[in-house]
Amino acid sequence: MRLIQRHPVRRVLLVGASGYIGRHVLAELHARGHHIAALVRPDSKRPEAPAECEFIDADVARIESLQAALLGRCFDVVVSCIASRTGTAKDSWAVDYQANLHLLQVATVLGVGHFVLLSAICVQKPRLAFQHAKLKFEAALADSGVGYSIVRPTAFVKSITGQIQRIRDGRPYLVFGDGELTACKPISQIDLARFMVDCVEQPDQHQGILPIGGPGPALTPMQHGELLFRLLQQEPCYRHVPPGLFKVMSSLLSPFTFLSNNLDETAEFLRIGHYYATESMLLWDANHDVYDAQGTPEYGEQTIEDMFIQALNDNSRVDTAVKRLF
Ligand SMILES: NC(=O)c1ccc[n+]([C@@H]2O[C@H](COP(=O)([O-])OP(=O)(O)OC[C@H]3O[C@@H](n4cnc5c(N)ncnc54)[C@H](OP(=O)(O)O)[C@@H]3O)[C@@H](O)[C@H]2O)c1
């Protein structure tokens, strides 16, 4: 059984509670006894929540909507887990930057003491629109005078379990290059939510920019593949994709992107693909121009092997349910 150390109860405004990480933050805040007001957009599907959790309908994209919903209320901490769902440049600037800025403006007026932001470790080497949008908000938060924890996680488990069904279907595991170009220490959604709630409870010890990974060691995509094949007791089989393919396709599109938004967005997605195929999700050591696996902070208990086993079990439950249907 997990022992939870009791801290003073906080009044928390949670934004993005309908998302993958936000849902887990909500559950963890509840488990630790905090008062939760979850702000969701009116047409959003509300997450499962305990009866004590209050839902507030408002549109963070519109400052007037936020002001109408929040002015006169009291919160100790704001936790923002919002992020663009599409990853396009336009949406990232609207959500990761502008909507968060609206939240910060209202939080400042309300006298909120601390702001916990879900960001991403990849902003340390920014090349993509969504990274610049996140960084610009991080800078606004850091300059605001409000206490802050900018949580920059490494990879999420959902980003590395996507190939389980491919392998089950007998298809090869896809790796970029030789499969050793990148490495990561993924963090589970539960451990990340716990870390974010630690920031709520102990803001003094979690002040500033906080890169955070799960338990090590850092593994490459090839090592993830080996682990999965071992767990599935299947003969390893890989397909190697040259990461340069993304660059070639994006350069071919570049001269035409002014013609349509769709082409422009496709070119950005190709750049995103190239980034993740070639950059590690680990702490960047700018002095030595290398990723620092050892120096990437670790938190939590769930290892990548635990997460794979859980994902394989979840997957087989889905398989069984589908087989029962047909
Ligand atoms: N995937 C990875 O490996 C990884 C690693 C490190 C960091 N990250 C970072 O983690 C974040 C993504 O977290 P996640 O997977 O939990 O995201 P998610 O599941 O896509 O959830 C996004 C949340 O933002 C809300 N949202 C999006 N657009 C909105 C808008 N226009 N107005 C109001 N709310 C809006 C969504 O609300 P609705 O339900 O209403 O849409 C949802 O609650 C990103 O910042 C990403 O960069 C990801």
Structure description:
The chain has about 325 residues and is of the alpha/beta class. The protein has 2 domains: about 10-155 and about 185-210, Rossmann fold (3-Layer(aba) Sandwich), CATH 3.40.50; about 220-325, no CATH class. Helices cover about 40% and strands about 15% of the residues. It is built from 10 helices and 11 strands. The chain has helices spanning about 20-30, 65-70, 90-110, 130-140, 165-170, 190-200, 220-230, 245-255, 260-280, 305-325, and strands at about 10-15, 35-40, 55, 75-80, 115-120, 145-155, 175, 210, 240, 285, 290. Helix 4 (about 130-140) links the parallel strand 5 and strand 6. Helix 7 crosses helix 10 and helix 8 packs antiparallel against helix 9. The longest helix has 22 residues, at about 90-110. The chain is globular and about 60 Å long. The two termini are about 40 Å apart. The model is unreliable at about 320-325 (pLDDT under 50). The structure holds NADP nicotinamide-adenine-dinucleotide phosphate. NADP nicotinamide-adenine-dinucleotide phosphate binds next to helix 1 and helix 3.
**Poorly predicted tracts of residues:** 321-326
CATH architecture label name of the largest domain: 3-Layer(aba) Sandwich
The 3D shape can be described as globular
For the largest beta-sheet, the strand count, sense and barrel status come to:
7 strands, parallel
Beta-strand content estimate: 15-25%
Major beta sheet, strand line-up: 3-2-1-4-5-6-8
Secondary-structure map with pairings?
Elements: E1 11-15, H1 20-31, E2 35-40, E3 54-57, H2 63-70, E4 77-80, H3 89-110, E5 114-118, H4 129-142, E6 147-153, H5 164-168, E7 173-176, H6 189-201, E8 208-212, H7 221-232, E9 238-241, H8 244-253, H9 261-278, E10 283-285, E11 290-292, H10 304-325
Parallel strand pairs: 1-2, 1-4, 2-3, 4-5, 5-6, 6-8, 7-9
Antiparallel strand pairs: 10-11
Helix pairs in contact: 1-6, 2-3, 3-4, 7-10, 8-9
